[in-house]
Specification:
The complex is a heterodimer.
Chain A lengths: L2 H39 L8 H16 L2 H7 L1 H8 L5 H25 L3 H9 L4 H34 L8 H10 L4 H29 L7
Helix pairs in contact in A: 1-2, 1-5, 1-7, 1-8, 2-5, 4-5, 5-7, 6-7, 7-9, 8-9
Chain B lengths: L8 H10 L17 E12 L2 E12 L3 E5 L6 H7 L8 E6 L2 E2 L5 H8 L2 E5 L10 H12 L3 H14 L15 H13 L5 E5 L7 H18 L2 E6 L2 H7 L2 E6 L2 E7 H6 L4 H7 L8 H5 L8 E9 H5 L10 E10 L2 E11 L3 H14 L2 E8 L4
Parallel strand pairs in B: 3-8, 3-9, 6-7, 7-8
Antiparallel strand pairs in B: 1-2, 1-4, 4-5, 9-10, 11-13, 11-14, 12-13
Helix pairs in contact in B: 4-5, 4-6, 5-6, 6-7
The chains are: A mainly alpha, B alpha/beta.
Main location (chain A): membrane
Organism (chain A): Phyllobacterium phragmitis
Keywords (chain A): Cell membrane, Membrane, Transmembrane, Transmembrane helix, Transport
Chain lengths: 221, 372
């Protein structure tokens, strides 16, 4: 493999990391509050408001039903408005984040919903405010599961970022399509797939270790 | 040990002036009459069409341990949750330390809840926090500084005997230890009332005894009022001063524990008590003849003064077949099965009459022949 090819692989790798990392971070920061709103406003929640709950649920479902490749194109005006261009790695972070946020919101919602209601009851019995319950009970108790869900989101984003190549975002997926598929360079294809396997396994491994460290529900040997 | 009820000390002292000197026998802080910490009037709460609690009125006196017993589905959980506003009644009045709480919104209930500790059947400890952080949570909610919290947590750990487990996570503890943490956490903010929601139901008998002993200790040492709900008479017997029996949302019986144990009036109470009261052994029961036999089998229930008298000596030829006398709240309460010779009907009748004048309840179950 030529030096030029290696440089290309290296650059694409970093583009993938950039896209996944930033959109992952944004989906975390935006998705977790959305999940909390879904939980709190649900029937029997700490701030029951079914109108907000159903509306937000509908918007999230709406975004989640649009295929990512369509969303990518449909969001071009939005992307252009935010980033100034609709092309390139940074531009792709906008549609990636917008797709990943509702995705993570739903995953985080499940994690938060699984927090034992008895713990919330205990905190209420102590005279805790809603904010205290969120900060001291809901989020810390759901943390292992929230982290596990975030790992899934990141891995999904690695895959989705390949599609972002369609708007010239670069990245490993783009490289695989243009060089490996369209120009029959099997070597590049194999290299890209190998790097992706290592990347995904790495993300998953780190996520699993973190969950293990955060989870105090079972006795460790 | 420092006094527990800080806010209401003045209140208690004024009351103390009005009550006569306490009997020396009774070591625990006697509740001053009229000093009710909780007062419920005609409280009703329904789920759908079925009332979970129906027109319940009761008071909890300061310093007492009140036990509420009932089968599952009797409305105990709903009732105890009404006291700290976790459950809202449909109608009726609930006063906590003189404050009507039924009309309070969630935000205004919070300071009331901080004055009431609660422990749970499944402990409800936060798995992500260490023992010390769990205990410190109510203090954090109160807004205490880190240093204050640390000091108080150390005191509480000592009180429940878990000083060496401060840095452990709940998952590393046994059930009994978890409940001790639960108790320490419930006491952290120096509440004036402790609610216990089936706190020993998930524990084995030995651990149950040690937890109950701890609750009793806390009641005595700190003068803390405790309201506990349970489905086990054994729990009531061990710790409660007064008992309320709940059946299908209604109060069916109420009174000092030893009296209710000695003379249960309601069917529910009798059946709940069955596990504790001696029964005629099956071998003997099978041989019972309803009409005649050598010996009459007489069931005698007795309590208090009657159980202390040597009345058996008066019954010529009577044998003790089975039974026992237990001590409840320092009072003897028992059930005896006696075999009394039955060939002389008049003598038997006289013996039964004699027993009736001494015991709470006397019943001729039948007759047996041969070796009883």
């Amino acid at each position: 493999m030529s030096q030029a090819m290696l440089d290309l692989l290296w650059r694409s790798f970093w583009e993938t990391i950039t896209m996944t990392g930033f959109s992952g971070l944004i989906s975390l920061v935006a998705g977790l509050p959305l999940a909390l709103i879904l939980i709190l406003t649900d029937r029997g929640g700490l701030a029951e408001n079914l109108w907000i709950n159903r509306s937000l649920g509908a918007v999230i479902n709406g975004f989640r039903s649009v295929p990512f490749i369509i969303l990518l194109v449909a969001l071009i005006p939005v992307t252009r408005f935010i980033v100034g261009t609709s092309l390139g790695t940074w531009a792709s972070i906008v549609p990636l984040s917008i797709a990943a946020t509702p995705y993570y919101a739903r995953i985080a919602e499940v994690s938060l919903r699984e927090v034992d209601r008895g713990l919330i009851e205990a905190a209420r019995a102590m005279g805790a405010t809603r904010w205290t319950i969120i900060r001291e009970v809901l989020v810390p108790e759901a943390m292992p599961s929230l982290v596990a869900g975030f790992t899934v989101t990141l891995v999904t984003l690695v895959g989705a970022s390949a599609m972002a190549g369609a708007i010239g975002a670069g990245g490993l997926g783009d490289l695989a399509i243009r060089y490996g598929y369209q120009r029959f360079e099997t070597e590049i294809m194999v290299a890209v797939v190998a790097i992706l396997i290592v990347l995904v396994s790495g993300v998953q491994w780190i996520g699993d270790r973190l969950v293990e460290r955060l989870d105090h529900r079972i006795v460790k040997r | 040990m420092t006094r527990h009820a800080t806010k209401f000390e003045a209140d208690v002292n004024t009351q103390a002036l009005n009550i006569p000197a306490q009997s020396t026998k009774d070591a625990q802080p006697e509740a001053a009459s009229g000093d009710m910490i909780v007062k419920l009037s005609d409280v009703r709460r329904s789920f759908g069409d079925t009332p979970a609690i129906d027109m319940v009125s009761l008071s909890v006196k300061r310093g007492e341990i009140l036990g509420i017993i009932g089968r599952s589905g009797a409305g105990k959980s709903t009732l105890i949750r009404c006291l700290n506003g976790l459950e809202r009644p449909d109608s009726g009045s609930i006063q906590v330390e003189g404050l009507e709480i039924t009309s309070l919104d969630e935000r205004r209930l919070q300071p009331v809840r901080r004055r009431i500790g609660m422990i749970f059947q499944h402990f409800n400890l936060l798995s992500a926090k260490t023992v010390e952080d769990n205990i410190a949570l109510p203090l954090k909610i109160e807004g205490q500084s880190r240093a204050q919290r640390k000091k108080r947590v150390a005191e509480l750990l000592e009180l429940v005997g878990l000083s060496d487990k401060a840095k452990h996570y709940p998952a590393q503890l046994s059930g009994g230890q978890k409940q001790r943490v639960g108790i320490a956490r419930a006491l952290a903010a120096k509440p004036s009332l402790l609610l216990s929601d089936e706190a020993t139901s998930a524990l084995d008998p030995e651990t149950t005894r040690s937890i109950l002993a701890l609750l009793k200790d806390i009641n005595r040492q700190l003068g803390l009022t405790i309201l506990l709900i349970t489905h086990e008479m054994e729990v009531i017997r061990r710790v409660a001063d007064r008992v309320i029996v709940l059946d299908r949302g209604r109060i069916v019986e109420e009174g000092p524990v030893w009296q209710v144990f000695a003379n249960p009036a309601a069917e529910t109470t009798k059946s709940l008590l069955q596990v504790l009261t001696p029964e005629l052994p099956p071998t003997l029961r099978e041989r019972l003849n309803p009409a005649s036999g050598d010996d009459a089998v007489v069931k005698v229930q007795l309590s208090g003064e009657a159980a202390r008298r040597p009345f058996l000596a008066e019954l010529i030829g009577a044998r003790l077949l089975h039974g026992g006398i237990d001590t409840v709240q320092g009072e003897p309460v028992g059930t005896l099965f006696l075999g009394i010779p039955a060939h002389d009907k008049a003598a038997l009748e006289k013996a039964v009459q004699y027993l009736k004048s001494n015991a709470d309840h006397v019943e001729v179950l039948g007759y047996v022949s041969g070796d009883a």
